[in-house]
Amino acid sequence: MKIRGYRIEPAEIVAKLCEHAWVREAVVVARQNGPGDKHLIAYVVCAPDAGSDQGDGGTFASALRAHSSALLPDYMVPSALVRLEALPLTVNGKHDRNALPAPRDQAYALAGYESPQRSVEIALAQIWAELLGVERIGRNDHFFELGGHSLLAVQTLSRASNFGLSFGAADIFRAPVLKELASKIHLQVATVPGR
User: Fold this and answer.
1) With a threshold of 0.85, does the pTM exceed it?
2) pLDDT of the residue at 189
3) Any residues with CB less than 8 A from the CB of 194 and at least 6 apart, and which?
C-alpha cells in the first residue's frame, strides 16, 4: 500500500510491533480520515503481562508508539494503536479487516490531558481535532504523534488563517506540541508593529 507517496509494508510494521513484550498478535491497516488522507492504524492483541490501561488513556498507545518509532521510519509508525481482546476473523479464518473498530481517542499517543487555555490554544485544538480526527485535544498533545504530517500541517495553516492566526509550516515542525506552538503564535502576533 502507499501512504503520502511512501510504500508501506504492513507485515514489516506488524513484525516490529510483535517484538514488544506486550504484543502477542497485531494487524496494521490504512484508514481514510478524509479525502486522500490515510493513516496507519495498528490493532493489537496483548500478551498476558501487558496489564490494563485504565488510566487517562494513551499509556499503552504511547509505549507502543515509542517502541515502533525506535525501530521504523516515521512514515511507518502507526497513528493509533487499538487494543483488542482478539482480532476478528472471517469464516475462512483470515483477519476480517472490515470488522475492525474505528480508533477512539485513547488509541492515540495522547499526553496527560490539560484543557487548552486562551483563544489561540482553543482555536488550534479545534483545528487539530477536525484535521486529525481526534475528539479531545489537550495543550500537551503532539501534532505528529497524533497522526499529523506535512500535508495536514499545510491544511492547519489554511484553517488557522480563518481564525486570524498567522504562522509558518516550519513553526509546526519546530514546536509540534499545542501549547508550544500557541506560545510562538502569541509572540508573533505580539511583535507585529501596530498591534
Assistant:
1) no
2) 46
3) none
